[in-house]
Q: What sequence folds into this?
């Protein structure tokens, strides 16, 4: 039963990842390639492997939190996790599909905050789950700065 719940979280996270990648793929070759790039923007090939690892870590973190003993924090943590996943999904839609860089910046600020709250809540129910979220928190912090620079350079 434990492994079935891991498969569930992997399915949820990689469904978000796959849909986001589908929206992103065609836009990277067309619209995104026309944007002025910040000097510190990584090459495009970096994003796929990084996000694949981050979605896997997120799924494992949610799984570990879900295995923890029942508590009010566990419910809060899982609710926050689903909320941040929805904000993550929305960012790809707003940035790549709708080309709204400024609104994507607003979304990513809420996303980073939701990830921080999720990480803290996960740490209350499973220290491992909390630590598994920290690379994601750091990457989205970097992505927030990158988003801001894209917005500044392409207004």
A:
């Amino acid at each position: 039963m434990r492994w079935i719940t891991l498969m569930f979280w992997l399915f949820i996270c990689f469904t978000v990842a796959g849909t986001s990648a589908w929206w992103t793929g065609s836009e990277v070759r067309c619209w995104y390639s026309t944007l002025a790039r910040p000097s510190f923007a990584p090459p495009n090939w970096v994003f796929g492997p990084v996000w694949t690892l981050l979605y896997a870590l997120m799924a494992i973190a949610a799984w570990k939190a879900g295995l923890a003993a029942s508590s009010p924090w566990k419910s809060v943590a899982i609710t926050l996790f689903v909320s941040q996943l929805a904000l993550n999904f929305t960012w790809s839609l707003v940035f790549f599909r709708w080309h709204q860089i400024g609104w994507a910046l607003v979304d990513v600020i809420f996303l980073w905050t939701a990830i921080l709250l999720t990480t803290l809540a996960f740490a209350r129910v499973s220290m491992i789950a909390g630590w598994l979220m920290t690379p994601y928190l750091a990457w989205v912090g970097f992505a927030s700065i990158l988003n801001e620079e894209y917005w500044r350079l392409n207004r």
Q: What stands out?
A: Residues 2-153 form a domain with the Ferritin fold (CATH 1.20.1260.100). The chain has one domain: 2-153. The first helix runs from residue 2 to 29.
